[in-house]
């Protein structure tokens, strides 16, 4: 049987990401069955963020500091990026409250990268094919196989997006009804947390955090289209190709966003 299913790509920053939620560590969730957590959830990689920063930027930071007088050195690069990001978000909220234009808000947001980003990927919605693709239901394994194949090629495909934490969740099976059946179950999904980095020539460390630089070095840049849109289009295309091998056609959902060109967006604003 061939299935027609939607796919969801939700991209966020560390502001909306919760690493302990992804790890299922020191957290209790009413819709999660810990039996399924232990038995079915999958960890692909799980590094502490500080360790990931040392691996990516430790040598670059020491090289940078060796050329600077003490007052200009950066003691801790992760804390430095976090502080810049928090300042960016503070200015953004102030500008938003004062009614500044979307163009001005976008300019503030583009100044500094987040310490890391998160991509949440899922296939199907909870109601598809009589809920058979929900966690714990009969067709769940199809979505799991597609997501697993997609995740295993993600890092090779995106060498400038360093994945330090990645999990597949299959434990959101919902609560139990009076007859013992599950209700409000979710669908299998991936949490992919990554640090965008670049070693392009520029200000700061010789290897540094930069989403725009990372995507540019992966040839995902265009004068007419935002790099993040090109990235999501690339990933959706790859997921769709993998899904076809599993007899699944990825279709647009009724609530899917329609991407427009950069020039059209600017004119629209």
Describe the fold and architecture:
The protein has 269 residues and is α+β, with helices and mostly antiparallel strands. It contains eleven helices and nine strands. The longest helix is centred in the N-terminal third of the chain and has 21 residues, at 77-97. It is globular. The relative contact order is 0.19.
Shape: globular
- Order of secondary-structure elements: EHHEHHHEHHHEEEEEHHEH
Provide the residue-averaged pLDDT.
88
Which percent range describes the beta-strand content?
Answer: 15-25%
Query: What is the β-strand count?
Result: 9
What does the largest sheet look like? 7 strands, mixed
Question: Which parts are unreliable, with pLDDT below 50 for 5 consecutive residues or more?
Answer: 259-269
C-alpha end-to-end distance: 45 Å
How would you classify the helix and strand content by structural class? alpha+beta
How many distinct helices? 11
- The percent range for helix content is 40-55%
Gyration radius, to the nearest Å? 21 Å
């Amino acid at each position: 049987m061939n299935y027609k299913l939607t796919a969801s790509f939700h991209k966020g920053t560390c502001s909306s990401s919760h690493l302990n939620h992804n790890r299922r560590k020191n957290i209790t969730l009413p819709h999660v069955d810990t039996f399924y957590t232990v038995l079915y959830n999958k960890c692909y990689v799980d590094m502490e963020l500080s360790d990931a920063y040392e691996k990516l930027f430790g040598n670059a930071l020491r090289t940078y500091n060796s050329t600077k007088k003490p007052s200009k050195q950066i003691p801790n690069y992760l804390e430095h990026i976090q502080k810049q990001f928090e300042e960016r978000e503070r200015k953004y909220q102030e500008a938003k409250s004062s009614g500044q234009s979307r163009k001005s808000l976008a300019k503030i947001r583009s100044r500094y990268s987040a310490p890391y980003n998160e991509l949440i990927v899922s296939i199907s919605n909870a109601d598809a094919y009589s809920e058979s693709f929900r966690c714990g239901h009969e067709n769940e394994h199809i979505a799991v196989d597609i997501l697993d194949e997609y995740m295993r090629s993600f890092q090779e495909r995106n060498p400038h997006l360093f994945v330090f934490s990645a999990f597949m969740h299959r434990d959101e099976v919902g609560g139990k009804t009076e007859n013992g059946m599950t209700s409000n179950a979710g669908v299998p999904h991936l949490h992919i947390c990554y640090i965008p980095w670049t070693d392009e020539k520029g200000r700061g460390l010789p290897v540094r955090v930069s989403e725009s630089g990372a995507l540019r070095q992966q040839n995902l840049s265009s004068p007419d289209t935002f790099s993040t849109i090109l990235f999501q289009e690339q990933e959706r295309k790859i997921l769709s190709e993998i899904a076809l091998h599993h007899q699944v056609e990825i279709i647009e959902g009724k609530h899917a966003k329609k991407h427009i060109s950069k020039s059209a967006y600017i004119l629209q604003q």
